[in-house]
Design goal:
- This protein is mainly α.
- The chain has one domain.
- The protein has two helices and no strands.
- Helix 1 crosses helix 2 (34-64).
- The radius of gyration is 15 Å and the shape is elongated.
- The two termini are 28 Å apart.
């Protein structure tokens, strides 16, 4: 279930990122094709996964000491 939760969290996060970009970018005058929005969402999702993993490893290491 933990894997399913993590997977669902990543999928939902990806779509939240893309939808946020579609809403926010035009406010700042940024015109990006939909395919680029999906790619940008993918990059931010990958960064989020790396960040979450790194923080989890750090706090697990601190907890053991």
């Amino acid at each position: 279930m933990s894997f399913l939760e993590s997977l669902l969290n990543v999928i939902v996060g990806y779509f939240v990122a893309v939808l946020s970009q579609l809403l926010v970018f035009p406010i700042f005058g940024i015109d990006v094709p939909l395919s680029d929005n999906f790619a940008i969402g993918g990059y931010f999702t990958a960064i989020s996964i790396i960040r979450s993993y790194t923080l989890r490893r750090f706090f697990n290491a601190v907890r053991r000491n």
